[in-house]
Amino acid sequence: MLKKVIISGVAGFLGTHLAETLLEDGHLVIGIDNLISGKLENIKDIHNNGFTFIQDDVCSNDFPLNPLFKDVDQIYHLASPASPKLYQKYPFETINVNTIGTKNMLEIAKSNKASIVFTSTSEVYGDPEVHPQTEEYKGNVNTWGPRACYDEAKRLGEVLCYLYYSVYGVKVKVARIFNTYSAGLANDDGRVISNFISQALSGDAITVYGDGKQTRSFCYVSDTIRALKLLMDKDEANGELINIGNPMEYHILELAHLIKRLTDSKSPITFLPLPKDDPKMRRPDISKAKELLGWEPRISIEEGLEETIKKYKAKMRINNV
């Protein structure tokens, strides 16, 4: 059935992929972005009569009153800087979009009786003392550090979702997203996979922070998008927090060597000091996603990296012409 869908943060990494997928499914999509971290070039190739783009700030007081939002069926609230490089550059904007912006999106959902997915993050677990992380784990987060503007803003966004669900009965679902990647990540994004691939293809030193023994899990973007759509469509997920990520865990140094091999790169691997509050390990328990959504990742790390590397190479050729 055709639905009217809002995507905030549409010009970002996940927003672009989600918009393209929903338009292919035949839905009407209203995409919103203030372009602080999103880029117009990400959506310039979306030529679909069902797509409307609005350059606006979801935090503005009159934002929920836009008449275009009348009779909306679904809302994906993705807007927020997501890489440490960007949320540390825009800390106040990051706090606002995940708090004021989240409240505004929840108000639109409430007034339209729409379903809403809020994309939270594995960062709410901080530097975890429980491994792997289940949704019941309360986290080990530092409020007094450079990552707090993102971690704590997402946590407060979850509180707002809880209140709108429990007080007003809004059909809200929260996705705690672990590292997602594909060629859609800008090569200057600052996240580990985009960094390593760009460095390996350019012949620059691959920079590993700390000793590289810290771990992460990596989920290919098509798997994450599929999870978000399943989450939106599942009524049983209303009022639930659900981890979305790949439970396969890799040491960062192991990832560096894998990317070096897949790119056939001669780049040396160098080591830099570990940033403050950088988590030592991160891996989702996805039992809830399996049970409630029937979801688990399909794309292996090698498959996803090979596709990402191929597209990065093509982009670099274009940029060097």
UniProtKB/TrEMBL annotation:
<dbReference type="Pfam" id="PF16363">
    <property type="entry name" value="GDP_Man_Dehyd"/>
</dbReference>
<comment type="pathway">
    <text>Nucleotide-sugar biosynthesis; UDP-alpha-D-xylose biosynthesis; UDP-alpha-D-xylose from UDP-alpha-D-glucuronate: step 1/1.</text>
</comment>
<dbReference type="GO" id="GO:0042732">
    <property type="term" value="P:D-xylose metabolic process"/>
</dbReference>
<dbReference type="GO" id="GO:0033320">
    <property type="term" value="P:UDP-D-xylose biosynthetic process"/>
</dbReference>
<keyword id="KW-0812">Transmembrane</keyword>
<keyword id="KW-0210">Decarboxylase</keyword>
<keyword id="KW-0735">Signal-anchor</keyword>
<keyword id="KW-0520">NAD</keyword>
<dbReference type="InterPro" id="IPR036291">
    <property type="entry name" value="NAD(P)-bd_dom_sf"/>
</dbReference>
<keyword id="KW-1133">Transmembrane helix</keyword>
<dbReference type="GO" id="GO:0070403">
    <property type="term" value="F:NAD+ binding"/>
</dbReference>
<comment type="similarity">
    <text>Belongs to the NAD(P)-dependent epimerase/dehydratase family. UDP-glucuronic acid decarboxylase subfamily.</text>
</comment>
<keyword id="KW-0456">Lyase</keyword>
<protein>
    <recommendedName>
        <fullName>UDP-glucuronate decarboxylase</fullName>
        <ecNumber>4.1.1.35</ecNumber>
    </recommendedName>
</protein>
<dbReference type="InterPro" id="IPR044516">
    <property type="entry name" value="UXS-like"/>
</dbReference>
<feature type="domain" description="NAD(P)-binding">
    <location>
        <begin position="7"/>
        <end position="308"/>
    </location>
</feature>
<keyword id="KW-0325">Glycoprotein</keyword>
<dbReference type="InterPro" id="IPR016040">
    <property type="entry name" value="NAD(P)-bd_dom"/>
</dbReference>
<keyword id="KW-0333">Golgi apparatus</keyword>
<dbReference type="GO" id="GO:0005737">
    <property type="term" value="C:cytoplasm"/>
</dbReference>
<keyword id="KW-0472">Membrane</keyword>
<dbReference type="GO" id="GO:0048040">
    <property type="term" value="F:UDP-glucuronate decarboxylase activity"/>
</dbReference>
